[in-house]
Amino acid sequence: MRKLLVPREHLAGRSLWRQRAWYAPHYVANSLLEVDFTVLRERGVRCAALDVDNTLVSHGGMNMTPEVIALLRQVREKGVLERLVLATNRCRSVDQLAAHIRADAVLQHGWHRKPSRRYFDQLERAVQFPPEAIAMIGDKIWTDIYGANRAGMVTVLVRPLGGASVV
Fold this sequence. Notes:
This protein is of the alpha/beta class and 167 residues long.
């Protein structure tokens, strides 16, 4: 997250419709490894909600790289963020991934999937932080960025692992 600030407020000031601003992330990074969690903390973020497929692991995978595991453990151990949560539309368990980085998981509940507002309300209740204290980090504009922006969260768009589409 070198210089990833593209303030959504700046875009809205250029007379874009409010709905279009929902698709604009607050920050952009080439990968999860480049996200500067201290910048997020300075903005008031206390919890990171991490998309799983193509953000933490390749699509359908269950193995994070040692660098990602080390980064996320360090973020927790140094107290940069108080909580990490895996936010996914996966139906299968992500407990193994969560255990590696000492995180919780919020899975889809029935028809409530990202980008639905109910999914993000469920995420807020699970982590017990207000939306402005949660950063959604993901690779998809439609599910991760749009949904989290509508819920009032800070958003970080990362390039998908494997070069998949960000839409």
